[in-house]
Amino acid sequence: MRLTVKDVLKYKILNSAKIVTGKEYAEKRHIQWISAIEMPVENFVRKNEAVLTTGIGCGDDSEAFKVFVQDVIDSDASALMVALGRYIFDIPTEVIELAEKNNFIIIVIPWEIRFSSIIESVMKEINDIEYKEREKSEKVQQELLKLILKNTDLKEISKFVEKHIGYPIAITDRSGTLQKKSIHTQAFIKEWKKYVLQGILPSRTESTLLKGDPMFQKFQMVKIGNRFVFQIPVLQVADNPQGYIFVLVPDSESIESFLTLFRVNVLEHAATTIALWLSRRNAIEETKMRLRSDFVHELSKGEFLSLDQADSRAKLLGYNLKLPYVCIVGYPENMKILFQKRKQDYDSYEHWLESMIQYIEEEIYYAAQSLKKDMLMTYQGEQLVIFLETPGVKENENATNFLDLVERRLGNLLPEVIISWGIGNAFEGILGFGESFRHASTALSIGRRKKGSGQRMMYEQTRVDRVLLNMAGNNEMKEIIMSTIEPLVQYDEQRHMDLIGTFIAYNQFHGNVSQTARSLNLHRQSLLYRLRKIESLTGLSLIDPDDLFLLDLSIKIWKIGEHAVMAGQN
Predict the structure, then answer these.
(1) Buried-state track 400-439, b at ≥16 Cβ within 10 A, e below 16
(2) In this structure, are 328 and 452 located in the same domain?
(3) Among 375-389, 424-438, 466-480, 553-567, the least confident range
(4) Residue 236's pLDDT is what?
(5) 547 phi and psi, to 5 degrees?
(6) Who contacts 299 (Cβ-Cβ below 8 Å, separation ≥6)?
(7) Pair 433, 498 in one domain
(8) Which of 66, 8, 70, 55 is nearest to 33 (CA)?
(9) Is the pLDDT of residue 165 over 70?
(10) Does the structure show a pLDDT above 70 at 98?
(11) CA distances from 471 to 10, 42, 466, 500 (A)
């Protein structure tokens, strides 16, 4: 229920009042406040406020009165009541035209009517309406508290709130992730994720489209597509949002008709109730996630010596360690770069990263469920560590199919995210967790060095690279390699001629000068000059098979280590 301009005009005290403009809007314009104001208006008039004035200071100056009326209109006031007979004797034509142009209500009243009598009557009715609305909302608050005490599911709380406000709502955590997704359709969830990842939801700007009304400062209107949603923060003790309520209002609904006092009170009570629910749920979920994450981390480090030791904890966490698994390690490559593009929408990198990893983990879980495979996962040290059930210890095709599905889903949801993957060997037994993790980490490291970011590497494909890395760890081998390749490295750094790349191409084409020159877009003479320079710097002959083998081996070991094993330590 709301007090409208038409209701106020029915007061006995205003029998002699006359509507000059906007009569057709009297039933639609509601009044939340009333005050007497004279020039200047500045910011003293609130939205939906009825303004009383004598026009003092305007006198015969119709232009000054017009400016005054324009300021009142700009303040989103409900109506202007002008007392005629002392300073203003009639409403100027240009002021009437201004009011009609803006669909604004101007009412004239006799000088004899006291403003205090009008204010008293209006405030009495406003207070009566607010009392009744508050009484209704307090009953809702009591019901909400009962729901919390009964450990009611969030789905039931949502239904209760929707029933009282008349519109559907969505409840999210602080990153915008929907809670209780079973309430919503898959199409809605997909669309919602898109707006969250674009940084549109939740809105983190401090401005609000309702700033003219002090009652609704917590409310924000957020545009998504061709519609608006209302966002209400679910606060915790430090006044930091731990979640949000979004009210999905149809396009046909105006702000004025939606934001009744009753709905505002119900939503505030709902925010308090949901804050309690989220606090309790978060404490439980964070404990579960930490226990699961720590358990998977301990498995990957090989800290369990027997199956019995690990199995008791695994059963409590819902894991089956007796199945064959394969370890997959993923490294998101470009998270900080992506954050720089959107950092204005987030409080911190850590907050944004938490949200992104959560979405990546959701897609990984979904892929495992789609393939009907058990899975253990943790995110530690900037890496996703996954243990995926596999059909047998000799089958790694399962991991490839799994990553195909993960990347396909992430390509639709997070197309800009680049993840490199390392795949270990399939295994059985408790000791296999640690070994497969080490193999997957080695494959990831070699794959990133050899193939670049965003690629996959299986451990079984790294045999040659592992041999080279082991050779690189030998001190005598380091000396041989560095004495061979260091002159080329220094020359390339000084002259930017890329002699190392030239040799790799020359060796790839089995010493064919014409093919090598074409692949490098070089003249034959330029290529021959480079080859002679390689021979003079290294003291090796490119037609001697032993020298050729030594130079090729040295370059391969140097490249696989990316200077870290030898040149960085030299």
Answers:
(1) eebbebbbebbeebbeebbbbbbbbbbbeebebbbbbbbb
(2) yes
(3) 553-567
(4) 64
(5) -65, -40
(6) 310, 376, 387, 430, 433, 434, 437
(7) no
(8) 8
(9) yes
(10) yes
(11) 97, 80, 8, 20
**HSE value, Cβ hemisphere, 13 Å, CA-based, for 200:** 16
pLDDT in tens, 344-364: 656 688 888 888 998 899 899
- Alpha carbon 265 to its chain centroid, in Å, reads 28
Query: Could you list the residue range(s) of the whole structural domain that residue 221 is in?
Result: 151-282
Identify whether residues 168 and 120 lie together within a single domain: no
Instruction: Look at residue 429 and give its three-state secondary structure.
Output: coil
Compute how many other C-beta atoms are within 10 angstroms of the C-beta atom of residue 451: 12
Q: Could you give the residue ranges of the DSSP H alpha helices within 166-241?
A: 186-197
Of the candidate ranges 42-56, 70-84, 185-199, 518-532, the one whose mean pLDDT is the lowest: 185-199
Using CA atoms, how far apart are residues 428 and 135, in angstroms rounded to an integer? 65
Q: Is the pLDDT of residue 563 over 50?
A: no
Which residue type occupies 544?
A: D
**CA atoms within 13 A of residue 403's CA, in its CB half-sphere:** 23
Q: H or E stretch including 109?
A: strand 105-110
Q: Say how far apart CA 247 and CA 263 lie, in whole Å.
A: 11
Asked if the structure places residue 373 within a domain, the reply is yes
Bridge partner residues of 244 (DSSP): 172, 233
CA 497-449-339 angle, to 5 degrees, is 105
DSSP, collapsed to helix, strand or coil, labels residue 439 as helix
Tokens standing for 558? 């140097």
Residue listed under structure tokens 């993960």: 406
- What single DSSP character describes residue 181? G
Predicted pLDDT at 406: 94
> Which H helix or E strand runs over 133?
helix 115-149
Would you state the torsion angle of the CA atoms of residues 131, 132, 133, 139, taken in this order, to the nearest 10 degrees? 100
Domain endpoint, select from 282, 309, 328 = 282
Which residues are CB-neighbours of 2 under 8 A, at least 6 positions away? 30, 129, 260, 261
Distance CA 140, CA 272 (A): 12
Average predicted confidence (pLDDT) for the chain: 88
